[in-house]
Amino acid sequence: MEDIVPFIAGFGLLITAVVIWSGVWKAIALWKAARNNDLGWFIALCIINTVGILEILYIYVFAKHNCSGGCCEHKTTTPPTPPAQM
Fold this sequence. Notes:
By secondary structure, the chain is mostly helical. It has a domain at 4-62. The protein has helices at 4-35, 39-47, 53-62. The chain crosses the membrane at residues 6-28, 40-63. It holds the Pfam family DUF5652.
């Protein structure tokens, strides 16, 4: 019986780490889904618990990347065209 106590304590630490890991990724993914108006993704991310796997896929694969402020390298900018003179 005494041999199981360290196992249970270690298992509790593992569960705590997994809950924190999953919660952080879920919060980020839900925030991005809400900002992108992805209602289907938002609902799926709320219901399905995949220990962060679905959330990471949404963030890096499926989400539209918001490039405001020139933060994205893949963004190509064209200078604005001057108004036509009459």
